[in-house]
Amino acid sequence: MSLSQALQYLQENHDRFLAELEAFLRIPSVSTTEKHAADIARAANWVADSLRALGAQNVAVVPTGQHPVVYGFLPAAEAEAPTVLIYGHYDVQPPEPLDLWETPPFEPTVRGDRLYARGATDMKGQVMASLKAVEAAAHGGLPVNIKFIIEGEEEIGSPDLAGFIAEHKDLLAADVCLNPDSGMLGPDWPTITYALRGLAYFELRVFGPDHDLHSGIYGGVVHNPAQALAELIAGMHDENGRVTLPGFYDKVRPLSADEREALSHLPFDPTTFYLKQTGVPKLWGEPEYTPVERTGARPTLEINGLYSGFIEKGAKTVIPSYAMAKISCRLVPDQDPDEVAEQLKAYLKAHAPATIRWELDVMAGGPASVTDIHTPAVQALARAMEATWGSKPFYRREGGSIPVVGQMQQILGLDSVLTGFGLPDANLHAPNENLHLPTWQKGMEALVRFFYLYPQAAR
Amino acid sequence: MSLSQALQYLQENHDRFLAELEAFLRIPSVSTTEKHAADIARAANWVADSLRALGAQNVAVVPTGQHPVVYGFLPAAEAEAPTVLIYGHYDVQPPEPLDLWETPPFEPTVRGDRLYARGATDMKGQVMASLKAVEAAAHGGLPVNIKFIIEGEEEIGSPDLAGFIAEHKDLLAADVCLNPDSGMLGPDWPTITYALRGLAYFELRVFGPDHDLHSGIYGGVVHNPAQALAELIAGMHDENGRVTLPGFYDKVRPLSADEREALSHLPFDPTTFYLKQTGVPKLWGEPEYTPVERTGARPTLEINGLYSGFIEKGAKTVIPSYAMAKISCRLVPDQDPDEVAEQLKAYLKAHAPATIRWELDVMAGGPASVTDIHTPAVQALARAMEATWGSKPFYRREGGSIPVVGQMQQILGLDSVLTGFGLPDANLHAPNENLHLPTWQKGMEALVRFFYLYPQAAR
What we know:
2 copies of one chain form a homodimer. Chain A is α+β, with helices and mostly antiparallel strands. Chain A has helices at residues 3-12, 14-25, 37-54, 124-138, 161-167, 169-172, 215-218, 225-234, 257-263, 270-278, 291-296, 337-351, 376-389, 403-412, 437-458, and strands at 57-62, 69-74, 83-89, 109-111, 114-116, 145-151, 176-179, 191-196, 198-207, 213-214, 300-309, 318-319, 322-331, 357-366, 369-370, 394-398, 416-418, 434-436.
């Protein structure tokens, strides 16, 4: 069985692969709310069954503190072959707000050349691309050993993954980790990600009166907690969009002139690109950095949610008893998520007025990571992409956070090759998430080529 | 039939009156959400049936733009008697948040000497006190003509009431309006309210990206609308708690030295009182005014609700596409609600950044009012209260807003006598709203006495 036969197998089985992906997407495996616990279990078993169908050995659904990890192993046809550990996650983001979806999030629907569903790109589509590339490559004998580690807690910050990896070092031993949880800059621009931002996630609650008050009777003597929260949030950035938490930038590694130069070469105008992708009237952020630098190489603080008082249709003249904000920071090397939590607490201690009480929950976190682009695996993937798309891949820093990349490095000493076949308008974490099917198909081809090219590069 | 017989009738029928109030409270007549339209209609018909049972004439449930007004007339036993127009409303505030109620809001429950239910004090309890005082006084021949005007839109700002009054001037002609929608300072401190604040209510929506964004991919280039909203809200007060809308204080009538002196005489320490009633760690507001002045005689701007992004349990790393705040201002003489709306728009035009879009809905409004405490009706009620409680009533400015008081003055030329028999800890507009039953009973006695004393005072 040759590479060309494996690629032909991919073409011939495209419709079946798509049908299997749709079945996977129909499982609403939302990890952040308890009500989907049964769906999470169903998705884990679905992945395990798929691995068994590939002929994987030692397939296991391993319980953790919350959601299980799925493991499986496929040996190479020849001894001495290198081992690729493929990382993925079967959990998805919550689909809300539901009313903004054109078709239901868990009823996969093809419109044009895109498949719409929660998880289509992030990352059930990528997990399926990996499984099916292995199936195609394995048809006549795998050129590499393959191990799969597919977790169910990525969208809640992977709280149990580091423990699982540490407890199963021998099982997971490999030469490189392939992580397809990143994405592409455009359908004709294959992309390898070499840096990721870290994450620190918080819930801040501000308490005012011990019960909701009539705003006529008490308005003027109590500090409205929604207003107090707004004041605290407003103070978290200065007028130039810089985060004001004390010490926030102390450990931020400065961008070198070389790297700024490299990041300035893109196949598109980034301002036009971001305006089009977001629909905002004007971009925002630190003026001394370019948009690409701001999203990839600078830390941020974002408000992910805000709640207080009466938010239904109509009017209610109430002074709310409390207000809540979900706040997250994207971190860059060498920021530490625990230190950022302390910085936020220090900010609140310094700025929260005596007229309110506050609580801060530290929810999840992981550091940023930067990987070497000169490793055999990255170079093999670059050649595989060039052979598939006809152009060399772009190397980029990505703004998202994939804690497992740092964990693979720290616990197993494994470099990760970061890629993925979703597009910028895939609506990750948003309504109408979608997968561009022609790019998905090319992604599977590139992975098959990678499995063939990597053993030579690693030699 | 004498006054003493009327008072005895009240005592003897207390249990029946309480049972009728409970039946009234079981109707969830929430005016602000469409889902209670049938309950609103049921409450209106319940009031009309009660008026018919009293022997009222010309009882009518009159449709308006939204919720009907109930009217009824009871003639005095003797010609030449003055006419009292009794105002009330049968609608109630929404009961949310439901989980903070000890017993369900629409299942009236007596615990100790209080009756717990949404509307128990605001103001079904007061409407029932008026109906039953009339029933008792009418038993042997009413000393005054009584007209009832009971609306269903008070909790949404009475948008149709001014139109109804203007169209029915002859029907509503009277000598004075009795409005029991205010309250008492404490169970032993009967109170007549002589000033009310006005209201202007808004919904502000801030729009950022045209869909929710992944905070990793886009964090750093778009102005988070939740943050932008927080920045706009934070700027609406200065560090002394003064509202910063341009021109907001221009028309605020200064407090005279006499009035500040009068407002300083209270049967309790206001700081201790407000700390206890609200449970806040420290009072807030303009330092150059006392708490009583701030709640009664100074305008405010409050955040009544706040929403953006992901607010369920757990974490979601999203940049929300929009953020919303419900904002209301309590107004004092001579502020104009339309002008305040223009001031808020001017503030937003001056301060909203070019990185977001915004919309402002102007929802409801009414001016503040001050009434003369030397009218025959106020003096008759003062004597009635002194006879009932054994002490003279307190005169106070109240922070709440009752637009009908201004409308009665402007359209019918009628002064209002403002009172009510709810206590400060009645939890108006909040969970566990309640009515202190001994005070309610005394309130009915005071009203019966008022019906007997007013004709003499008015002569």
